[in-house]
Design a protein that fits this description.
The complex is a heterotrimer of chains A (289), B (263) and C (720). Chain A has 289 residues and is of the alpha/beta class. Chain A has twelve helices and ten strands. Chain A folds into two domains: 8-116 and 206-284, Rossmann fold, CATH 3.40.50.300; 128-204, no CATH class. Chain A is 37% helix and 22% strand. A six-stranded mixed sheet of chain A has the order 6-7-8-3-9-10, sandwiched between helices. In chain A, strands 2-1-4-5 form a four-stranded antiparallel sheet. In chain A, β1 and β2 (53-64) form a beta hairpin. The relative contact order of chain A is 0.18. By secondary structure, chain B is α/β, with parallel strands linked by helices. In chain B, strands 6-7-8-3-9-10 form a six-stranded mixed sheet, sandwiched between helices. In chain B, strands 2-1-4-5 form a four-stranded antiparallel sheet, covered by helices on one side. With 720 residues, chain C is mainly alpha-helical. In chain C, strands 1-2 form a two-stranded antiparallel ribbon. A two-stranded antiparallel sheet of chain C has the order 3-10. In chain C, a hairpin with a 2-residue loop joins β7 and β8 (526-529). Chain C is globular and about 85 Å long. Classes of the chains: A alpha/beta (289), B alpha/beta (263), C mainly alpha (720).
């Protein structure tokens, strides 16, 4: 992102592609304000307990359509648990998750994905024994699942060209892995596997993308490349990004939510959050607020 | 991060300029040099070097996925080192398995504690007694139960029924009973409430006061700075910074670049 | 006998059997808890105990001693079995730690064959020495254990039963005491919860494995001896207890001693109460119920509480369940070569009948090769779920056997008979239902598929070892039901000489066994075919080859891709939007249908008289097909088919040349599981590494180093 969007003014509007639908423009305009005119993802009182530990504590989160939201916080703040609750990997102790106006709290993960809620994993989770192309194709195929008849699904060769193949090649190009499409995913370099991870999410064509520390374990250059990749290929979507590193998200985010001890410490524009004394304390000041 | 910062990747590779191990004097209980290790096709540790002085608390800090736990696994022999050296009290322990390293007096307090959930507190401690080594620091079960008052009260409770903080105490106590000379603590404060974090910190200080060396692995930089005499920062499989805790606290550059904690 | 004394009698009987089960299950459970080994050979160790007891009792020297030989055997036989058990652990199980429990199942299955052989044929030198002169099959009891003992209130019970209950209780309590009050017991319990951490404390837990295995074996031996004193000694005695013992362990919770005790007594009591009617007074339970109730109980318990009554899911959190080693991406043969060889093989098979009656008998073609091909199809069906969806089904014989039964039932007209007096009957009659081989096979496939859907629906929610056990339970449930069903021929099975026709609507070209293509063929002066070549041979060849192509097609279609994705990472597949549970169920249905097809072919093609029996539903068959699948290399479709061919062929050869064929076959499995876990298809790659062969294959596949890569990803998840 550093290369593409250095202009401070562009910061707010950057995720919203100008050619995109009205919802996106809305999101960009309302960024920074707690209005929920067009909330695509919303949690209310979301709580998860593990025994006596409250990993996520009454979190109210409202993400606008088209927004680039970052959720930051020191380790153990409950970021990944929050993602698990939103995507259905865990079920909450209490509270609700609403997506696109519907309560999805009790839906299994695969149904949430089908509704348009995609996620990437912090620990790279691709199909190591399959080729890169096969990985992407599986994701693209999930989108076009309904278009195939039962017989086609069971017997039709996957080599035959169809919308799935087209999508697959397009995604491979966008994530820059077209040249290594026939390599087994396990044999990819670490950074490339992280790119594939993002490619898988992209290929499921989600409305909202939840990215869990997409640059974890990457070098400085790789990190920069990955952030611009995200900014580029996911520009027309709503993004919720988990990050440990505040600086990394400053330029790309519309709004930043700071999580600490399972609670929302504050939500605001990058500038507001950076100046917040409580946030500074949370990061450096020891055991807690 | 702004464009200018990111444009200077050279420092990110952890040049020796940041490190400062030369002026560390004293006996080294553990020294690790150019350690390489990983899993399958992935190399996680790409030449890690650091040491722990006898009697100090050293901290190894770094973000998620940079190789902290892998370092501990390599030291304890849970995974093989691919190259480099690991010395404990001057003797090479490369190639030894976790049983052998434990018998030398390296006590592991692992991530998520790994106490035996179906055994009582006392039985957990007796497992430490049955293993471990006959070092000067080896303590009796009763002795440890004296020190850890809350464990004494719950000596007949099963591990599974303890709170997170109690489990952490038990895991440390178990390592003490096993006679650890060097305690490897993997994220001891993870998932604990702030008040409990403080009491775990107190226990670590007490243990260290008795002369047991501690290697603390933490993501929580605040805890590491609180406890450690010397801090090593690990990033992408290499040590990128080494220095006294007080100095790191003031080094916004390192905190920012490798730990992502400055604001 | 009054109702009350009858109840007491039942109770004592139930407790006697129950305590034997407790000893058996405790050993199994401890071995599983500490080492994750599912020991199918446990039943054979139980039998071995009884046979050793016989041997000890037969030693002449002992007759001068003041004690009865029974007491000495009760002391010595368990020790001897402990030594055998320890040896097994050291020599065969040790190399497999860290692999998926499936490999232990396979290994111990191989050991079952070895032990069975040793016990049945009394073959091997040491054994022969021990048993010279003994042909007895019952353990003589000391006088003090014979007769009845009065319990007061007019109730008398067999002294021996009281002894068994008392002795069993003492041993069980002793074991419990030792687990809770000794150092070794503490280490064993800790090891069952987290082996890795035990090692980190400086305790070499591996050293205790041999001890634990030896101890578990000794418990089995004690159980064998005390039961032998009551019921005699017979070769199949291990077979008769191993499945109930598994049910008890799973019911009580794998690795839980308490579960073994409660489960053992419970199952013992239930079995006795139900087999002997008077207890329930007027409510005589139906005969059919007694064999199946235990399995139904187990299935219900597993569905409600997958970890068993007393199992603690957290204790198995070490997450060390190793992956299944597939043969995929292994071969040095590239896809083109594989295709050529496949076509070549089918062509060869098509030409084999050319030598009938000249080079070999019709038996080779009509029976041996047909059986090989049918088993190839059966193995293919298993690979579909085992190699691609990672579902370890231990009950695949259910679908195979049901297919076989269906064929015979259709031929007998019993299936059509079900619909007598309904409108369907007319339709069936028009179709010529009871005569059509196609409709019979279709029915078998349909029934197997429906059954697979039911089993899959109920069991796919439980994972890993529990899935294996629940499928085993379903298969045993059906076998036991069949044993009681007159309609299905009960213990005798079914047979009919009325074979099916190649045809439909009552029109056909003749009976399956009868249609002969060529009887004799002479080309010039050379006699090429000297016997009958049956159409059935080609019918099977086409069906099997066609099924393979179909299965391969499915694996290359969207459905198959998703299965492979699930095998790689189920969680990720879910987060791409796939309902992974549904996919696994569908795969299970396809697999069950293919197994039903294989089973359906079995009775109609291998003889003039169609016959099927309960042995076609025996769990050993499930074990055999797993062995065949692994032998070939699972996850490749063609590998398991080759493996099955080899399996049947090897059996045939060995039977011809040696009486000890079972033992040799068993040892072969043991060897394969330890040294070639990825199967035959990986042999070229293995050899390649040593011999530097170049067959121009493996193109582009980076599978040359199969070992560490997949494990690495698993490990990475626990890191940092």
């Amino acid at each position: 992102m550093a290369g593409d969007v250095t202009d401070q003014n562009a910061e707010q509007a950057s995720p919203g592609d100008p050619t995109d639908d009205a919802g996106t423009t809305d999101g960009a305009e309302t960024a920074g304000r707690e209005t929920s005119t067009d909330a695509v993802l919303e949690t209310t009182g979301l709580t998860k307990r593990f025994g006596e530990l409250v990993a996520v504590d009454s979190v109210d989160l409202t993400v606008e359509r088209g927004e680039f939201r970052s959720v930051i916080g020191p380790n153990g703040a409950g970021k990944t648990t929050l993602f698990d609750l939103i995507t259905g990997a865990l079920s909450p102790t209490s509270g609700t998750v609403t997506f696109d106006g519907e309560d999805i709290t009790d839906l299994p993960p695969h149904v949430r994905v089908r509704r348009g809620l995609g996620r990437s994993f912090q620990i790279t989770n691709v199909f190591g024994g399959l080729t890169v192309r096969e990985n992407v194709r599986l994701a693209a195929q999930a989108v076009h699942r309904e278009e195939l008849s039962v017989l086609d699904r069971l017997f039709r060769s996957k080599e035959r060209s169809d919308p799935v193949t087209a999508d697959t090649e397009r995604v491979l190009d966008r994530i820059g892995l077209a040249d290594s499409a026939d390599v087994r995913a396990a044999a990819l370099a670490y950074g490339d596997r992280r790119r594939l991870e993002i490619g898988l999410v992209l290929a499921t064509d989600p409305q909202v993308v939840l990215l869990d520390e997409p640059t974890a374990g990457m070098g400085v250059d790789e990190t920069r490349e990955t952030m611009s990749l995200i900014d580029e290929v996911l520009a027309d979507r709503t993004i919720v990004l988990i990050e440990h590193d505040i600086d990394l998200v400053m330029n790309v985010s519309d709004r930043v939510t700071v999580l600490h001890g399972g609670r929302v410490l504050t939500t605001g524009t990058p500038g507001e959050v950076a100046d917040d004394e409580e946030v500074q304390r949370a990061y450096l000041g020891g055991a807690g607020p | 991060m702004s464009g200018e910062d990111a444009a200077d990747p050279a420092q990110g590779e952890g040049g020796p300029g940041d490190s400062d191990t030369s002026d560390r004097s004293g006996d080294r209980i553990l020294s690790v040099e150019e350690l390489r290790a990983g899993y399958g096709e992935t190399e996680v540790l790409r030449g890690v070097s650091f040491d722990v002085l006898d009697g100090e608390v050293a901290a190894l800090v770094g973000r998620n996925g940079v190789g902290k736990t892998t370092t501990l696994r390599a030291i304890t022999g849970a995974i093989p080192a691919r190259s480099g050296s690991i010395r404990f009290r001057g003797e090479s322990i490369i190639g030894e398995d976790s049983v052998a390293t434990a018998k030398r007096g390296i006590g592991l307090v692992p991530e998520e504690r790994r106490i035996f959930p179906g055994l009582t507190v006392e039985e957990n401690l007796r497992m430490g007694q049955l293993g471990g080594s006959e070092t000067a620091h080896r303590r009796e079960v009763e002795e440890v139960l004296e020190t850890f008052g809350n464990l004494r009260e719950r000596r007949n409770n099963r591990g599974a029924n303890l709170s997170g903080g109690e489990q952490q105490m038990l895991a440390i106590a178990r390592a003490l009973v096993a006679g650890a000379d060097l305690l490897l603590l993997d994220e001891p404060t993870e998932g604990l409430a702030p008040l409990i974090v403080e009491s775990v910190e107190d226990v670590i200080r007490e243990v260290n006061d008795e002369g047991i060396s501690v290697l603390l692995v933490e993501q929580n930089v605040a805890v590491a700075l609180d406890l450690a005499d010397h801090v090593f920062v690990l990033d992408r499989g290499r040590i990128v910074y080494s220095g006294p805790a007080e100095r790191l606290e003031e080094d916004g550059e390192v905190l920012d670049r490798h730990l992502g904690v400055s604001v | 006998m009054s109702a009350f004394t009858a109840v007491i009698d039942q109770l004592i009987n139930g407790l006697t059997i129950g305590i034997v089960y407790v000893l058996l299950a405790a050993g199994l459970s401890i071995i599983f808890g500490v080492m994750d080994v599912i020991n199918f050979a446990h039943g054979e160790l139980f039998a071995l105990g009884a046979y050793f007891a016989l041997a000890v009792a037969g030693v002449q020297l002992l007759e001068g001693l003041p004690f009865h030989a029974f007491w000495i055997s009760l002391l010595l036989a368990p020790l001897a079995v402990a030594v055998v058990g320890g040896g097994i652990e050291r020599l065969t199980i040790r190399p497999l730690y860290g692999r998926n429990p499936l490999y232990h199942i396979l290994l111990t299955f191989g050991l079952v064959l070895v032990f069975k052989d040793v016990i049945e044929t009394r073959c091997c030198p040491p054994y022969f020495l021990l048993f010279r002169g003994t042909s007895r099959s019952s353990v003589s009891l000391p006088p003090m254990l014979e007769g009845q003992v009065a319990l007061g209130a007019g109730i008398t019970v067999a002294t021996y039963s009281v002894f068994v209950i008392a002795a069993g209780t003492v041993v069980a309590l002793g074991t419990w005491w030792a687990l809770n009050n000794t150092k070794v017991g503490l280490i064993v319990r800790a090891g069952a919860q987290d082996r890795g951490m035990v090692r980190h404390l400086g305790i070499d837990i591996d050293r205790y494995y041999t001890l634990v295995f030896a101890f578990g074996s000794a418990l089995a031996a004690v159980a064998g001896i005390v039961l032998a004193g009551r019921q005699g000694v017979f070769p199949a005695m291990g077979d008769s207890v191993i499945i109930p013992a598994f049910v008890i362990v799973v019911l009580g919770g794998l690795g839980s001693f308490r579960g073994a005790v409660v489960g053992g007594l419970g199952v013992g009591l239930i079995q006795t109460m139900l087999t002997s009617p008077p207890v329930l007074g007027e409510y005589v339970p139906s005969e059919e119920l007694s064999g199946v109730v235990v399995f139904i109980l187990m299935i219900i318990v597993l569905l409600a509480r997958p970890q068993g009554l007393f199992g603690n899911p957290e204790w198995q959190s070490s997450g060390e369940e190793g992956e299944l080693l597939t043969g995929s991406g292994e071969g040095v043969l590239g896809p083109t070569w594989r295709k050529r060889l496949g076509i070549g093989l089918v062509a060869l098979l098509a030409l084999v009948p050319l030598g009938v009656g000249v080079r070999y008998s019709t038996y080779v073609v009509d029976s041996l090769l047909v059986t090989m091909m049918i088993w190839a199809l059966f193995a293919l069906s298993l690979d579909f779920v085992l190699g691609y969806a990672g579902l370890v089904s231990l009950g695949h014989v259910l679908f195979f056997g049901v297919g076989a039964y269906t064929s015979v039932l259709v031929a007998q007209g019993k299936v059509a008979g079900l619909f007598a007096d309904t409108p369907v009957a007319a339709l069936l009659s028009v179709l010529g239902y009871s005569d059509s081989v196609f409709l019979a096979l279709a029915t078998g496939v349909g029934v197997a598929a429906v059954l697979a859907w039911v089993v899959g629906y109920l069991s796919i929610r439980v994972a890993g070892v529990y899935f294996a056990m629940i499928t085993l339970a379903f298969a045993e449930l059906v076998r036991n039901a069949v044993l009681k069903l007159q309609w299905a021929g009960s213990t005798d099975g079914l047979s009919t000489a009325d074979n099916l026709d190649y045809g439909i609507f009552g029109q056909g070209i003749g009976e399956v066994g009868d249609v002969v293509l060529v009887e004799e063929l002479t080309i010039g002066p050379v006699l090429v075919i000297g016997g009958e070549v049956h159409l059935s041979y080609y019918f099977v060849l086409v069906t099997v080859a066609g099924s393979y192509l179909l299965a391969r097609r499915m694996m290359n279609a969207p459905f198959g891709s998703v299965l492979q994705a699930i095998r790689e990472s189920e969680q990720r597949a879910k987060f791409l939007g796939y309902d992974t549970t549904a996919y696994k169920r569908r795969a299970f249905v396809v697999s069950g249908a293919l197994a039903g097809l294989a089973g359906g072919l079995l009775p109609i093609t291998t003889g003039i008289v169609l016959s099927v029996g309960p042995s076609d539903l025996h769990w050993i068959v499930s074990g055999e097909v797993i062995v065949a699948t692994i032998l070939g290399g699972m996850g490749t479709l063609y590998g398991p088919m080759l493996g099955a061919g080899l399996f049947v062929g090897a059996e045939e050869l060995l039977v011809e040349y040696t009486d000890q064929w079972q033992a040799i076959l068993g040892l072969l499995f043991v060897f394969f599981v330890i040294f070639v876990p990825r199967g035959l298809v990986s042999l070229p790659a293995l050899l390649d590494r040593h011999l530097d062969l170049d067959l121009g294959g493996g193109g582009g596949e980076t599978g040359a180093d199969p070992g560490p890569a997949p494990e690495a990803d698993a490990d990475r998840e626990v890191d940092d």
